[in-house]
Amino acid sequence: MQSYSRTAAATAILSLAIGAIGATAVRAQEPFIVVQSTTSTEQSGLFKHILPMFKQKTGIDVRVVAVGTGQALKNAERGDGDVVLVHAKAAEEKFVADGFGVKRLEVMYNDFVLVGPASDPASIDGGKDITAALTKIAGAKAPFASRGDDSGTHKAELDLWKPTGVDVKAASGDWYRSTGSGMGPTLNAAAGMGAYALADRGTWLAFKNRGPLKIVVEGDRKLFNQYGVMLVNPARHPHVKVKEGQAFIDWLTGPEGQSAIRSMKIEGEQLFFPNAPVADLKKAG
Amino acid sequence: MVDLGSIIGLALGLVASGDTELYAIILLSLRVTLTAVLIGCLIGLPLGAALAVLRFPGRGAAVAVLNSFMGLPPVVVGLVVYLMLSRSGPLGVLGLLYTPTAMIVAQAILVTPLIAALARQSIADLHGEYDELFRSLRLGPARQIATLLWDGRYSLTTAALAGFGRAIAEVGAVIIVGGNIEHVTRVMTTTIALETSKGDLPLALALGMILVAISIGVNAMVLSLNRTAQRLAHA
Fold first, then answer.
1. Using CA atoms, how far apart are residues A114 and A120, in angstroms rounded to an integer?
2. CA B209 to centroid of chain Cα atoms
3. Which portions of chain B are predicted below pLDDT 70?
4. 10 Å Cβ neighbour count for A3?
5. What pLDDT is recorded for position B175?
6. pLDDT tens column, B78-113
7. Nearest residue on chain B to A202, judged by CA atoms?
8. What percent of chain A is modeled with pLDDT above 70?
9. B197 vs A182: CB contact, 8 Å cut-off?
10. What percent of chain A has pLDDT over 90?
11. Can you give the pLDDT at residue A23?
């Protein structure tokens, strides 16, 4: 039965190989927290910029799960995270009021921009009034790509449609196209279809496949985009790492974190503007 | 815009640069998928062989169910595993969500039916040839299964490779249960999805090429090992 011993040898080699692969991946267990956050903070490169600074100071590894705001809050409600950093004030306040979060603190803001094809079929380029622009898009039945995923940007977009009186649900599948996906995929779709889309400025600045798209409307006060941070309530989920999570929140809303946020730039343009209530911004600058 | 030559150049450049982050992602992909396939083989091969050899009522239905589970949607498997491992789920206390272990579990669930179904088919064919021999030797079912698995080992590699192909290529399950966390649960497919999201299509495509090359490499390695073993056995 020579073939048996050969196979035994082969099996031994194979298991050694798998063991070696496994061993390389085993790392010393360092303190970490899970942060449920949004695609805009991840895909714009903000976390990549600021998290190494936090880790250097505290030794705490921050594991970011980047999903839409709606999903981030839902995941956190189930206890799958220690901290939530999202951008949908009403939903965040409800999250805290329902006892899932401890306290909501404002961290930073940027703004939404309306992007669209250079051909500008709705003739809105250069406008400052988002309500007028959206009304014109609906009037021209120009294609509009919506996130449609209950994210912070999607919630903001639906709020912006309200004063126009346009029933976007009725137009869905016609000129209003709900992609049901993240900011990046929606921008990819908009670039492909030559559609208008609402995007957060951070993701837009970092986005590389713009195709025919450019900013057509910006600067309306209604396009303000506020981010808030919350600790998941340990009273509801006892496994929440209160100490490490609170350390992250304190850092983020403190002078160092605020200054780290301010220093994040793409092509010279600042992506997020820190505005935590307690931060002494002068000292940080 | 995106031309093939520059993509290949980009892919080769990435590999040659020795970028530790890329290699860590590749290693994690292999570690998760190979472990899942190993588990899939340990469960799927005996299960498939048992279904080929044993005769029991409802066997036809079991085979039909197994065959249709070859097409389990990764996103559904991911969702179910997420709900099980979530802190609010039945296995939440284990704290396994957003870890490579969770990804292994999800992929093992995906590949086990595929490996079992393919193993059942190839063992059933072999069983037809061996049937008379088994009768004359009066072998019990356990011995029959062991013999068939052993003698069919070369063709069973195809089942394992099919499982590997399904697992290394899927993104739907691992992105839900792993969360695509940088340096922790980010694998090749979720990296490609992320770069696509960022609109960096050339980088996404280059990473895709590397992934396909890895897949070809693993298949070539297994097949040549298989052939060498076969030649030695018949020498």
1. 12
2. 19
3. 1-2
4. 14
5. 96
6. 999 999 999 999 999 999 999 999 999 999 999 999
7. B198
8. 87
9. yes
10. 80
11. 47
Radius of gyration of chain B (CA): 20
Q: Looking at the domain that runs over A111-223, which CATH code has it been given?
A: 3.40.190.10
Q: Whole-angstrom distance between the N-terminal and C-terminal Cα of chain A?
A: 77
The CATH homologous superfamily for domain A32-110+225-284 is Periplasmic binding protein-like II (3.40.190.10)
- Closest alpha carbon within chain B to A63: B181
Find the closest chain A residue to B90 by CA distance. Answer: A78
Contact between B144 and B134 under an 8 Å Cβ cutoff? The reply is yes
> Quick check: A25 and B200 CB within 8 A?
no
Rounded to whole angstroms, the Cα distance separating A193 from A142 reads 10
What does the buried/exposed string (b/e) look like for B148-165 if buried means 16 or more CB atoms within 10 Å of the residue's CB? bbeebbebbbbbbbbbbb
pTM: 0.87
The count of structural domains within chain B is 1
B53 in helix, strand or coil?
helix
State the pLDDT at residue A30.
Answer: 84
CA–CA separation, A256 and A279 (whole Å): 9
Give residue B22's pLDDT: 93
Which residue range forms the structural domain that includes residue B98? 4-234
The predicted pLDDT at position A18 comes to: 55
Contacts of B88 in chain A (CB under 8 A): 78-80
Q: Is B176 exposed, middle or buried (0-12, 13-18, 19+ CB in 10 A)?
A: buried
Is it true that A32-110+225-284 and A111-223 share their CATH fold? yes
Query: 3-state secondary structure string, A94-145?
Result: HHHHCCCEEEEEEEEEEEEEEEEECCCCCCCCCECCHHHHHHHHHHHCCCEE
Can you tell me the ipTM of this complex?
A: 0.83
Q: What is the DSSP letter of A270?
A: E
Residue B197 has its nearest CB partner, among A6, A43, A237, at: A43
What token pair was written down for B61?
């239905």
Mean of pLDDT values over A184-196:
95
CATH assignment of the domain containing B35: 1.10.3720.10
Tell me which H or E stretch contains A82: none
Q: Which whole number is the average pLDDT over A223-242?
A: 96
Residue A285 — pLDDT band, cuts 50, 70, 90? very low
